[in-house]
Amino acid sequence: MRLNLIALAALRDGIQRPNYDPSKLGIGIVHLGLGAFHRAHQAVYADDAIAANGGDWGISAVSLKTPTARDQLAPQDGLYSVRTVSRTGDAWRIVGSVREVLFAPEQMAEVIARIARAETKIITLTVTEKGYCANVAKREPLWDHGDIAHDLSHADDPRSVLGVLAAGLHERFRKRGTPLTIVCCDNLPENGAVLESLVHQFVTRLYPEIMPWLRDNVRFPSSMVDRIVPATQPQDRVDAARVLGYEDHGVVRAEPFSQWVIEDNFAAERPACEHVGAQLVADVRPFEKMKRRLLNGSHSLMAYLGYVAGYETIAETVSDPGFEQLVNALMLEAEATLEPISCVDFAAYREQLIERFGNPANGHRCAQIATDGSQKIPQRWIAVANERLANGLDINALTLATAGWIRYVYGKDEMDAPITLSDPLAAEFTAIAAKHPYDAMSFADAVLRIEPVFGALGRNPAFAAPVKRWVNQLFRDGAQATVDSFNDPATSR
Ligand code: CS2
Questions:
Q1: Which of 82, 84, 407, 456 has the most crowded Cβ, counting Cβ within 10 A?
Q2: Can you tell me which atom of ligand 1 is nearest the CA of 187?
């Protein structure tokens, strides 16, 4: 039998579960992007906040691209378990806050109606970097992106996140136009301001008449989200059935650590998240920058170089002393670009990150983090390299990290086996590799010219020359030897 509301009542003791009746919960939040991360992060905060303080903060969770999550959770009345994995063992809990699951392409009218209802006070989003179909640095929608172009001519049947938001906002305006807060939860710099700008530009094209209302009534706080959530593994389902006594097709696994820093800029009511561990602050930027540059920057470095060196997971990669040293070097380069945060000790934060990366129970695969590098590394590394060069600082670890990415997108590993590239620019990488087979320098040179990733930095010799030298060494000596030589200056390049 599947986990559902009836099973919940009969669940065996010892498993944490909602102390409220999920069937009586009203929906106050719409979430776009029902991946594992949402289930292990925002939905857990909502679950805790409802348990602690009540309130109709149930979530209508929307999948935009695939029906998988809807098909997993709808038969379970939205219920699922979170398996927290740590060095000391597992903990399981059932989350009750997801009250409705929708698959947008089949249930668009319901999605739009949910966004429009006055009871909905908040929209949260986890749609990944590429999900915004935008040039993030310029804060502009990619107007010629297929989904954006489609939505501009089919406003009632949108495909893109911006299109769905625009249609929902238009309908909300037509109803009562009550205030709304839209919280971006993706790893983008100043994510609230970015999303606000994208939505404003998009809505201006489709429904200019609602812009005065939108400006006055819809807020876009920025937020920093953090929890390492590896993809669910088949074993998680097997274990869920054993531990819960019910099948759970929606189970997610996550590390014990969790953090959510949110700009206190809401248009209307919100759940009392500050009572359940979230930090409400005036300015999220320093927190978000720290997390993105230290955690995500290190993640990407380990994903590419670790993969090429033959490691499967992040924990395996960081347990190699050479990699641990390189990650620390990258973090120090990034840290020098951060402004101090009064309540944060960066050295302790770095140490905690190494410990989190090394959690052997995580099973976080390098290949998972390696996806969509073209969308991630500009804000994880390139911005840092630009700032350091402007301040006359070295960029040794950053250039090796970048070389690791270039080596990875070559598309063949050190045994000459194909690497499956999952990236909006994958076809471009493959074409460049075909043009420069086994020619490290010309391949690197051509990749460095990909403007949306590197901007002008790719043509700056202070960056491009060391990157190309590292790429050459990676092809010649392999990733492990190159990482080891980074740490041992005696083995010079
Ligand atoms: C990772 C993130 O996949 C990735 O790119 O770096 O998903 C990371 O695990 C989270 O941001 C941690 O909060």
A1: 407
A2: 11
